[in-house]
Amino acid sequence: MAKKKNGNNEGSIRKRKNGQWEGRYTIGYDSRGKQKQVSVYGKTRAEVAKKINEKVSAIQNGTYIVPRDITLSEWLNIWLTSYAYIKVRPSTYASYQAYIDRHVSPLIGGLKLQKLTTNQLQVFFNEKRMNGRIDGKGGLSPKTIRNMYNMLHEALQQAVINKILSINVSEGVVLPSKEEKEIIVFKPDEQRAIIEAARKDRLGFAIELDFFTGLRLGELCALKWSDIDLTAKEFRVRRTLQRVQKKTSDIKAKGKRTQIVEGAPKTKKGNRVIPLTDTMLQKLLVHRARQLFEKRRLGKGYSDNGYVFANEFGGAIEPSYMRDVYDRILKNANAPHYTFHTIRHTFATRAIENDMPVKVVSEILGHSSVQLTMDPLLSSVDFRETKCSGENGESLIIENNFTQEQLSDFAI
Protein backbone atom coordinates (compact mmCIF):
# COMPACT_ATOMS: atom_id res chain seq x y z
CA MET A 1 0.00 0.00 0.00
CA ALA A 2 1.36 3.42 -0.94
CA LYS A 3 2.29 5.79 1.82
CA LYS A 4 -0.12 8.62 2.44
CA LYS A 5 1.42 12.11 2.30
CA ASN A 6 2.56 13.19 5.73
CA GLY A 7 1.65 16.34 7.58
CA ASN A 8 4.14 18.77 9.06
CA ASN A 9 6.64 17.12 11.42
CA GLU A 10 4.92 13.73 11.07
CA GLY A 11 8.00 11.96 9.75
CA SER A 12 7.40 8.81 7.73
CA ILE A 13 4.09 7.00 8.25
CA ARG A 14 2.82 3.82 6.59
CA LYS A 15 0.23 1.13 7.12
CA ARG A 16 1.64 -2.34 7.73
CA LYS A 17 0.24 -5.56 6.26
CA ASN A 18 -1.27 -6.53 9.62
CA GLY A 19 -3.35 -3.35 9.62
CA GLN A 20 -1.22 -1.56 12.21
CA TRP A 21 0.22 1.90 11.48
CA GLU A 22 3.97 2.57 11.80
CA GLY A 23 5.65 5.96 11.93
CA ARG A 24 9.31 6.93 12.02
CA TYR A 25 11.01 10.06 13.29
CA THR A 26 14.63 11.18 13.01
CA ILE A 27 16.89 11.36 16.08
CA GLY A 28 20.14 12.20 14.29
CA TYR A 29 22.45 11.33 11.43
CA ASP A 30 25.22 8.80 10.94
CA SER A 31 28.73 9.51 9.61
CA ARG A 32 27.46 9.51 6.00
CA GLY A 33 24.66 11.98 6.66
CA LYS A 34 22.00 9.24 6.62
CA GLN A 35 19.06 9.71 8.94
CA LYS A 36 18.86 7.58 12.10
CA GLN A 37 15.19 6.85 12.77
CA VAL A 38 13.06 5.35 15.53
CA SER A 39 9.64 3.73 14.98
CA VAL A 40 6.36 4.22 16.85
CA TYR A 41 3.14 2.24 16.32
CA GLY A 42 -0.60 2.75 16.65
CA LYS A 43 -4.02 1.53 15.54
CA THR A 44 -4.73 4.63 13.43
CA ARG A 45 -2.71 7.03 11.34
CA ALA A 46 -3.80 9.95 13.52
CA GLU A 47 -2.55 8.17 16.63
CA VAL A 48 0.88 7.59 15.08
CA ALA A 49 1.08 11.17 13.77
CA LYS A 50 0.36 12.48 17.26
CA LYS A 51 3.11 10.31 18.76
CA ILE A 52 5.62 11.51 16.17
CA ASN A 53 4.72 15.15 16.72
CA GLU A 54 5.21 14.67 20.46
CA LYS A 55 8.63 13.06 19.90
CA VAL A 56 9.75 15.78 17.48
CA SER A 57 8.63 18.49 19.88
CA ALA A 58 10.47 16.81 22.77
CA ILE A 59 13.68 16.62 20.70
CA GLN A 60 13.43 20.31 19.87
CA ASN A 61 12.88 21.46 23.47
CA GLY A 62 15.37 19.05 25.06
CA THR A 63 12.93 16.82 26.96
CA TYR A 64 13.19 13.80 24.66
CA ILE A 65 13.61 10.46 26.45
CA VAL A 66 16.17 8.49 24.49
CA PRO A 67 15.49 4.79 23.68
CA ARG A 68 17.65 2.61 25.91
CA ASP A 69 19.31 0.81 23.00
CA ILE A 70 20.60 4.04 21.49
CA THR A 71 24.15 4.06 20.10
CA LEU A 72 26.87 6.55 20.95
CA SER A 73 26.60 8.19 17.51
CA GLU A 74 22.84 8.55 17.82
CA TRP A 75 23.15 10.21 21.22
CA LEU A 76 25.95 12.52 20.08
CA ASN A 77 23.82 13.77 17.20
CA ILE A 78 20.85 14.35 19.50
CA TRP A 79 23.09 16.18 21.96
CA LEU A 80 24.65 18.24 19.18
CA THR A 81 21.34 19.42 17.67
CA SER A 82 19.34 19.76 20.91
CA TYR A 83 21.87 20.95 23.49
CA ALA A 84 25.15 22.15 21.96
CA TYR A 85 23.57 24.01 19.05
CA ILE A 86 21.94 26.68 21.20
CA LYS A 87 25.11 27.70 23.06
CA VAL A 88 28.25 27.10 20.98
CA ARG A 89 29.73 29.23 18.21
CA PRO A 90 29.03 28.12 14.61
CA SER A 91 32.69 27.19 14.15
CA THR A 92 32.63 25.10 17.32
CA TYR A 93 29.45 23.39 16.16
CA ALA A 94 31.11 22.56 12.84
CA SER A 95 34.15 21.15 14.67
CA TYR A 96 31.92 18.96 16.84
CA GLN A 97 30.06 17.69 13.79
CA ALA A 98 33.38 16.81 12.14
CA TYR A 99 34.63 15.02 15.26
CA ILE A 100 31.48 12.91 15.33
CA ASP A 101 31.31 12.16 11.60
CA ARG A 102 35.01 11.65 10.87
CA HIS A 103 36.40 10.21 14.08
CA VAL A 104 33.86 8.89 16.60
CA SER A 105 31.22 7.31 14.37
CA PRO A 106 33.57 5.20 12.19
CA LEU A 107 35.33 3.61 15.20
CA ILE A 108 33.05 3.52 18.24
CA GLY A 109 29.84 5.23 17.11
CA GLY A 110 27.99 1.92 16.83
CA LEU A 111 28.58 0.98 20.48
CA LYS A 112 25.51 1.04 22.71
CA LEU A 113 25.60 4.18 24.84
CA GLN A 114 24.72 2.41 28.08
CA LYS A 115 27.40 -0.26 27.52
CA LEU A 116 30.20 2.18 26.72
CA THR A 117 33.24 1.76 29.00
CA THR A 118 36.15 3.92 30.05
CA ASN A 119 38.56 1.42 28.53
CA GLN A 120 36.83 1.62 25.13
CA LEU A 121 37.21 5.40 25.18
CA GLN A 122 40.85 5.10 26.27
CA VAL A 123 41.62 2.74 23.38
CA PHE A 124 39.83 5.13 21.01
CA PHE A 125 41.86 8.18 22.10
CA ASN A 126 45.11 6.20 22.07
CA GLU A 127 44.40 5.16 18.48
CA LYS A 128 43.57 8.71 17.49
CA ARG A 129 46.81 9.95 19.04
CA MET A 130 48.80 7.44 16.98
CA ASN A 131 46.89 7.24 13.69
CA GLY A 132 44.04 9.73 13.85
CA ARG A 133 44.69 12.03 10.89
CA ILE A 134 42.14 11.71 8.09
CA ASP A 135 44.91 11.88 5.48
CA GLY A 136 46.66 8.92 7.09
CA LYS A 137 49.78 10.92 7.94
CA GLY A 138 50.07 10.15 11.64
CA GLY A 139 48.16 11.03 14.77
CA LEU A 140 46.12 13.94 16.01
CA SER A 141 47.74 16.62 18.15
CA PRO A 142 47.20 16.64 21.93
CA LYS A 143 45.17 19.85 21.50
CA THR A 144 42.79 18.19 19.02
CA ILE A 145 42.54 15.13 21.27
CA ARG A 146 41.59 17.34 24.21
CA ASN A 147 39.03 19.26 22.17
CA MET A 148 37.41 15.98 21.09
CA TYR A 149 37.49 14.69 24.65
CA ASN A 150 35.83 17.86 25.96
CA MET A 151 33.02 17.36 23.44
CA LEU A 152 32.51 13.72 24.42
CA HIS A 153 32.70 14.51 28.13
CA GLU A 154 30.03 17.20 27.85
CA ALA A 155 27.74 14.99 25.76
CA LEU A 156 28.08 12.08 28.18
CA GLN A 157 27.51 14.40 31.14
CA GLN A 158 24.24 15.49 29.56
CA ALA A 159 23.30 11.82 29.29
CA VAL A 160 23.92 11.52 33.04
CA ILE A 161 21.75 14.57 33.71
CA ASN A 162 19.01 13.04 31.54
CA LYS A 163 19.31 9.82 33.58
CA ILE A 164 20.29 7.79 30.51
CA LEU A 165 23.65 6.99 32.10
CA SER A 166 24.44 6.53 35.79
CA ILE A 167 28.06 7.72 35.46
CA ASN A 168 30.19 9.61 32.96
CA VAL A 169 32.64 6.96 31.77
CA SER A 170 34.91 9.57 30.17
CA GLU A 171 36.01 10.74 33.64
CA GLY A 172 38.72 8.06 33.87
CA VAL A 173 40.30 8.65 30.47
CA VAL A 174 43.99 9.67 30.52
CA LEU A 175 44.87 12.27 27.90
CA PRO A 176 48.26 13.08 26.33
CA SER A 177 50.28 15.91 27.85
CA LYS A 178 50.02 19.32 26.25
CA GLU A 179 52.71 20.16 23.75
CA GLU A 180 54.62 23.40 24.21
CA LYS A 181 54.72 24.89 20.72
CA GLU A 182 57.61 27.08 19.68
CA ILE A 183 56.40 30.62 19.09
CA ILE A 184 57.61 31.86 15.71
CA VAL A 185 57.71 35.56 14.84
CA PHE A 186 58.92 37.52 11.85
CA LYS A 187 62.26 39.25 12.30
CA PRO A 188 62.19 43.06 11.96
CA ASP A 189 63.78 43.01 8.51
CA GLU A 190 61.32 40.32 7.35
CA GLN A 191 58.42 42.37 8.70
CA ARG A 192 59.61 45.44 6.82
CA ALA A 193 59.95 43.44 3.59
CA ILE A 194 56.43 42.02 3.98
CA ILE A 195 54.91 45.46 4.60
CA GLU A 196 56.77 46.86 1.58
CA ALA A 197 55.44 44.03 -0.62
CA ALA A 198 51.95 44.50 0.85
CA ARG A 199 51.83 48.11 -0.36
CA LYS A 200 51.78 46.86 -3.95
CA ASP A 201 48.71 44.66 -3.41
CA ARG A 202 45.09 45.83 -3.52
CA LEU A 203 44.38 44.21 -0.13
CA GLY A 204 47.88 44.60 1.21
CA PHE A 205 46.90 47.22 3.77
CA ALA A 206 44.99 44.50 5.63
CA ILE A 207 48.27 42.70 6.27
CA GLU A 208 50.06 45.91 7.26
CA LEU A 209 47.24 46.89 9.65
CA ASP A 210 47.38 43.46 11.26
CA PHE A 211 51.06 43.88 12.08
CA PHE A 212 50.05 46.91 14.18
CA THR A 213 46.88 45.54 15.78
CA GLY A 214 47.31 41.76 16.15
CA LEU A 215 43.79 40.93 14.96
CA ARG A 216 42.78 37.34 14.40
CA LEU A 217 42.16 36.52 10.74
CA GLY A 218 38.38 36.29 11.14
CA GLU A 219 38.31 39.57 13.08
CA LEU A 220 40.28 41.31 10.35
CA CYS A 221 37.89 40.11 7.63
CA ALA A 222 34.84 41.12 9.71
CA LEU A 223 36.04 44.66 10.44
CA LYS A 224 33.53 47.30 9.29
CA TRP A 225 33.75 51.05 8.91
CA SER A 226 31.03 51.39 11.54
CA ASP A 227 33.48 49.88 14.05
CA ILE A 228 35.94 52.74 13.58
CA ASP A 229 35.85 55.97 15.56
CA LEU A 230 38.09 58.45 13.73
CA THR A 231 37.70 61.13 16.37
CA ALA A 232 38.71 58.82 19.23
CA LYS A 233 41.40 57.27 16.99
CA GLU A 234 40.35 53.72 17.76
CA PHE A 235 38.19 50.86 16.56
CA ARG A 236 36.16 48.16 18.26
CA VAL A 237 36.38 44.44 17.53
CA ARG A 238 32.75 43.30 17.52
CA ARG A 239 32.60 40.20 15.33
CA THR A 240 34.48 37.54 13.42
CA LEU A 241 33.89 36.20 9.91
CA GLN A 242 34.16 32.47 9.22
CA ARG A 243 33.14 29.85 6.69
CA VAL A 244 31.77 26.88 8.61
CA GLN A 245 30.13 23.58 7.81
CA LYS A 246 26.35 23.58 8.00
CA LYS A 247 24.30 21.27 10.17
CA THR A 248 23.89 17.90 8.50
CA SER A 249 20.14 18.45 8.19
CA ASP A 250 20.70 21.82 6.48
CA ILE A 251 23.11 20.24 4.00
CA LYS A 252 20.46 17.70 2.99
CA ALA A 253 17.83 20.42 2.64
CA LYS A 254 19.85 23.04 0.72
CA GLY A 255 22.74 21.15 -0.82
CA LYS A 256 25.61 23.50 0.06
CA ARG A 257 27.90 22.12 2.74
CA THR A 258 29.31 25.40 4.10
CA GLN A 259 28.26 28.96 4.73
CA ILE A 260 29.82 32.30 5.67
CA VAL A 261 28.72 33.50 9.10
CA GLU A 262 29.42 36.53 11.25
CA GLY A 263 29.84 35.52 14.86
CA ALA A 264 30.95 36.98 18.16
CA PRO A 265 34.68 37.24 18.95
CA LYS A 266 36.40 34.12 20.28
CA THR A 267 36.13 35.14 23.96
CA LYS A 268 34.26 37.74 26.03
CA LYS A 269 37.43 39.83 26.16
CA GLY A 270 37.64 39.47 22.40
CA ASN A 271 35.09 42.28 22.17
CA ARG A 272 37.59 45.07 22.68
CA VAL A 273 38.79 48.53 21.69
CA ILE A 274 42.10 48.89 19.83
CA PRO A 275 43.87 52.24 19.46
CA LEU A 276 45.11 53.40 16.07
CA THR A 277 48.56 54.85 15.60
CA ASP A 278 49.00 58.12 13.80
CA THR A 279 50.52 56.30 10.84
CA MET A 280 47.84 53.63 10.68
CA LEU A 281 45.03 56.17 10.90
CA GLN A 282 46.49 58.11 7.99
CA LYS A 283 46.84 54.96 5.89
CA LEU A 284 43.32 53.87 6.85
CA LEU A 285 41.97 57.14 5.42
CA VAL A 286 43.93 56.59 2.20
CA HIS A 287 42.51 53.06 1.98
CA ARG A 288 39.01 54.47 2.53
CA ALA A 289 39.52 56.95 -0.33
CA ARG A 290 40.55 54.15 -2.68
CA GLN A 291 37.51 52.11 -1.71
CA LEU A 292 35.16 55.04 -2.29
CA PHE A 293 36.74 55.50 -5.73
CA GLU A 294 36.01 51.83 -6.55
CA LYS A 295 32.44 52.30 -5.35
CA ARG A 296 31.87 55.37 -7.55
CA ARG A 297 33.48 53.72 -10.57
CA LEU A 298 31.30 50.61 -10.35
CA GLY A 299 28.11 52.51 -9.57
CA LYS A 300 25.04 50.31 -9.12
CA GLY A 301 27.17 47.21 -9.51
CA TYR A 302 28.75 47.92 -6.12
CA SER A 303 26.92 46.53 -3.09
CA ASP A 304 28.35 48.29 -0.05
CA ASN A 305 28.27 45.91 2.92
CA GLY A 306 30.37 48.19 5.08
CA TYR A 307 33.51 46.06 5.25
CA VAL A 308 36.86 47.80 5.62
CA PHE A 309 38.40 45.09 3.44
CA ALA A 310 35.93 44.27 0.69
CA ASN A 311 36.08 42.67 -2.72
CA GLU A 312 35.70 44.72 -5.91
CA PHE A 313 31.91 44.57 -5.58
CA GLY A 314 31.68 45.53 -1.90
CA GLY A 315 31.24 42.03 -0.50
CA ALA A 316 33.12 40.33 2.30
CA ILE A 317 36.62 38.94 1.88
CA GLU A 318 36.62 35.34 3.11
CA PRO A 319 39.40 34.28 5.50
CA SER A 320 40.59 31.67 2.98
CA TYR A 321 41.00 34.37 0.32
CA MET A 322 42.79 36.66 2.76
CA ARG A 323 45.21 33.79 3.42
CA ASP A 324 45.84 33.63 -0.33
CA VAL A 325 46.60 37.37 -0.33
CA TYR A 326 48.97 36.87 2.60
CA ASP A 327 50.73 33.93 0.91
CA ARG A 328 51.15 35.96 -2.27
CA ILE A 329 52.67 38.85 -0.36
CA LEU A 330 55.06 36.56 1.53
CA LYS A 331 56.24 35.14 -1.78
CA ASN A 332 56.79 38.59 -3.25
CA ALA A 333 58.70 39.62 -0.13
CA ASN A 334 60.86 36.47 -0.15
CA ALA A 335 59.80 35.99 3.46
CA PRO A 336 59.49 32.68 5.36
CA HIS A 337 56.13 31.02 4.80
CA TYR A 338 54.75 31.11 8.33
CA THR A 339 51.03 30.87 9.15
CA PHE A 340 48.82 33.97 9.20
CA HIS A 341 48.68 33.72 13.00
CA THR A 342 52.40 34.55 13.04
CA ILE A 343 51.44 38.18 12.42
CA ARG A 344 49.61 38.17 15.75
CA HIS A 345 52.65 36.75 17.54
CA THR A 346 54.86 39.29 15.79
CA PHE A 347 52.64 42.18 16.89
CA ALA A 348 52.85 41.04 20.52
CA THR A 349 56.62 40.63 20.33
CA ARG A 350 57.22 44.05 18.75
CA ALA A 351 54.90 45.65 21.31
CA ILE A 352 56.89 44.22 24.23
CA GLU A 353 60.15 45.17 22.54
CA ASN A 354 58.81 48.75 22.29
CA ASP A 355 58.15 48.78 26.05
CA MET A 356 54.38 48.39 25.95
CA PRO A 357 53.13 46.96 29.29
CA VAL A 358 52.06 43.33 29.00
CA LYS A 359 48.62 44.15 30.42
CA VAL A 360 48.01 46.56 27.54
CA VAL A 361 49.22 44.00 25.00
CA SER A 362 46.92 41.40 26.53
CA GLU A 363 43.91 43.72 26.29
CA ILE A 364 44.65 44.59 22.65
CA LEU A 365 44.98 40.90 21.77
CA GLY A 366 41.72 40.08 23.57
CA HIS A 367 43.33 37.43 25.75
CA SER A 368 41.38 36.15 28.74
CA SER A 369 44.39 36.69 31.04
CA VAL A 370 47.80 38.37 31.10
CA GLN A 371 49.37 34.96 31.72
CA LEU A 372 48.08 33.77 28.36
CA THR A 373 49.99 36.63 26.76
CA MET A 374 53.16 36.28 28.79
CA ASP A 375 53.82 32.54 28.63
CA PRO A 376 54.68 32.26 24.93
CA LEU A 377 56.53 35.58 24.82
CA LEU A 378 58.89 35.22 27.76
CA SER A 379 61.08 32.80 25.86
CA SER A 380 61.47 35.07 22.81
CA VAL A 381 61.46 38.60 24.24
CA ASP A 382 63.67 40.44 26.68
CA PHE A 383 60.69 41.14 28.96
CA ARG A 384 60.65 44.23 31.11
CA GLU A 385 57.90 46.39 32.56
CA THR A 386 58.52 49.96 31.43
CA LYS A 387 56.66 52.94 30.08
CA CYS A 388 54.56 52.65 26.94
CA SER A 389 56.58 54.63 24.43
CA GLY A 390 58.69 53.95 21.39
CA GLU A 391 62.27 54.95 20.75
CA ASN A 392 61.64 56.74 17.44
CA GLY A 393 58.02 57.86 17.51
CA GLU A 394 56.76 54.60 15.99
CA SER A 395 55.33 53.10 19.16
CA LEU A 396 51.99 51.35 18.92
CA ILE A 397 50.03 53.97 20.89
CA ILE A 398 50.72 57.61 20.10
CA GLU A 399 48.79 60.83 19.70
CA ASN A 400 47.89 62.01 16.22
CA ASN A 401 47.33 65.51 14.90
CA PHE A 402 44.42 65.10 12.49
CA THR A 403 41.84 67.87 12.69
CA GLN A 404 38.10 67.21 12.83
CA GLU A 405 37.79 68.87 9.39
CA GLN A 406 40.30 66.46 7.86
CA LEU A 407 38.55 63.46 9.39
CA SER A 408 35.11 64.57 8.19
CA ASP A 409 36.30 64.40 4.58
CA PHE A 410 36.28 60.60 4.95
CA ALA A 411 33.03 60.28 6.89
CA ILE A 412 32.16 56.68 7.64
The residue-averaged pLDDT reads 82
Order of helices and strands: EEEHHHHHHHHEEEHEEHHHHHH
What is the tally of helical segments? 15
Unreliable segments (pLDDT under 50, ≥5 consecutive)? 1-10, 381-412
Query: Can you say what the CATH homologous superfamily of the largest domain is?
Result: Intergrase catalytic core
Please state how the strands of the largest beta sheet are arranged side by side: 1-2-3
Task: Please state the CA-atom Rg, rounded to the nearest Å.
Answer: 27 Å
Describe this structure in words.
The protein is 45% helix and 10% strand. By secondary structure, it is mainly alpha-helical. The chain contains 15 helices and eight strands. The chain has helices at 45-61, 72-84, 90-108, 118-131, 142-161, 188-198, 204-211, 217-222, 248-254, 278-298, 319-333, 341-353, 358-365, 370-377, 404-408; strands at residues 12-15, 21-29, 35-42, 228-229, 234-237, 240-245, 258-263, 272-275. The chain is elongated and about 80 Å long. The chain has three domains: 1-63; 65-179, DNA polymerase, domain 1, CATH 1.10.150; 188-408, hpI Integrase, Chain A. α2 (72-84) packs antiparallel against α3 (90-108) and α2 packs across α5 (142-161). The strands form three sheets. The chain has a three-stranded antiparallel sheet with strand order 1-2-3. Strands 4-5-8 form a three-stranded antiparallel sheet, with no helix packed on it. Strands 6-7 form a two-stranded antiparallel ribbon.
